[in-house]
Design goal:
By secondary structure, this protein is an all-alpha fold. The protein has one domain. Helix content is 65%, strand content 0%. It contains 5 helices and no strands. It is rod-shaped, with a radius of gyration of 28 Å.
Length: 72
């Protein structure tokens, strides 16, 4: 155990239980989120049908279909 860890532990032992709980809450708030907390791409897209090349081509035609006429 490092010296700083020992100092923290000694001071923690001196605190009443409710303050020790506050220290625990604070320490947990400092820890970074784990990967499990973030949704995966697989989870986000679960249940979505496979997008085919034809689906993409159709969306492009719908979006850009009248583009050249709009400029004229």
């Amino acid at each position: 155990m490092s010296p700083i860890q020992q100092i923290i532990l000694d001071k923690l032992k001196e605190l009443p239980p409710e303050k020790q709980g506050e220290v625990l809450d604070f320490i947990e708030s400092l820890q970074p989120e784990t990967k499990e907390d973030r949704p995966t791409l697989r989870g986000i897209w679960a249940g979505v049908e496979e997008i085919t090349e034809e689906d993409i081509a159709e969306a492009r035609r719908e979006m850009w279909g009248n583009f050249s006429r709009a400029i004229e």
